[in-house]
Amino acid sequence: MHVTVIGTGYVGLVSGACLSDFGHVVVCADNDAAKIAQLSRGEIPIFEPGLGTLVKSNVAAGRLSFTLDRAAAVRAADVVLIAVGTPSRRGDGFADLTYVHAAAREIAAAVEDFTVVVTKSTVPVGTGDEIEAIIRETRPGADVVVVSNPEFLREGAAIEDFKRPDRIVVGLEDARARAVMSELYRPLFINETPMLFTDRRTAELIKYASNAFLATKITFINEIADLCEKVGADVQEVARGMGLDRRIGGKFLHAGPGFGGSCFPKDIAALAATGKAHGAALRIVDTVADVNQDRKLRMADKVIAACGGSVAGRTVAVLGLTFKPNTDDMREAPSLAIIPRLVEAGAVVRAHDPAGTAEARRLLPGLVTVDDPYACMEDADALVILTEWDQFRALDLDRVRAALRAPVVVDLRNIYKPADMARMGFTYVSVGR
User: Fold this and answer.
1) What interhelical angle do 283-306 and 335-344 show, nearest 10?
2) What residues does each domain of the chain span?
3) I need a labelling partner for 287 at 20 to 30 A (CA). Which of 59, 267, 372, 387 fits?
4) Does 307 qualify as catalytic in the annotation?
5) What is the pTM of this model?
6) Residue 64: helix, strand or coil by DSSP?
7) What is the radius of gyration, based on Cα positions, of the chain?
């Protein structure tokens, strides 16, 4: 099949590369000339394990290409994927659909034969109807079917998620489009991947409801962690005991400094805004957003408390800046709330991250960053582990203790065992233990 992907951001690039690896002929189109030139040179603008190799191999095989000519790419396609950004709209939390609507107009102007237009971008309920209306208004006679096919990709594991997904959700009400979508994902049939065909609005809501529920699990276990600290329980054992119940499951029951990233914060804001707009207030979702933001700030207070109640004039070493490991994504990362609060309290913050340093320096002007974790902690008064990169899971603790001016470690990801850290002479603070 001939597939065109509008947008070469995270979702568009991963989707295009994986679909070309399935054997489809894929063109990724964008209006960003610098990005297209970069991709055409084989340079990947985002950090995602394995993506560079996948892109290069499929470009070499002639199945994947990049272009600025979006109209020509649409004309040649059997399927057009809309994979543009939908950031939160300032003021009300709704998803900003400016780029989605613009893509719909471009597609309408260029499309020729029967084409399936697939919404990959995360969009509010009813957006498929809007896309269809824009296409009908622009080209009343266009033979186009609009389909919702939300993505469920985890940054850092996106290729695995695309190729071995838990499910494929497809929202449509057209037999021809169903046949096309079945062919698009035919390579997944061998893995017996469940394909849920439903109506378009339901598919759109499945995406938001899924992310909101996962965010709720994270927030729930974080609040249980607070209770564990008060009563002397171990949140990791609590989570394990809960997770063994198949009705609950253990995933996303990991206490920490709060969630961030490109999806959860904006998606729960958009879902809550949609609920309000339709007179169905989502109080749990509203609370999850409020509690999560408050948690990030309280983690800074936890660091200050570990330093004896003041960080004024002290150096705090931070390991990990991105919202999660195996990505360079800094969007809504806990570090963006925690570090400014520490600086405001008088701390000198020095940080290290394997992939997010450049973006962190842009978002946190004046932040001192170093390329080595041990150099980061040299003569620091406290070490804070903020992102659970693999490189931080087996630090040389003798070297850590020798580097630090004071043996204070605040582990906001519960990487290490309290008894082991105490035995080595650290003042060790973790979450919910």
Assistant:
1) 40
2) 2-198, 245-429
3) 387
4) no
5) 0.93
6) strand
7) 23
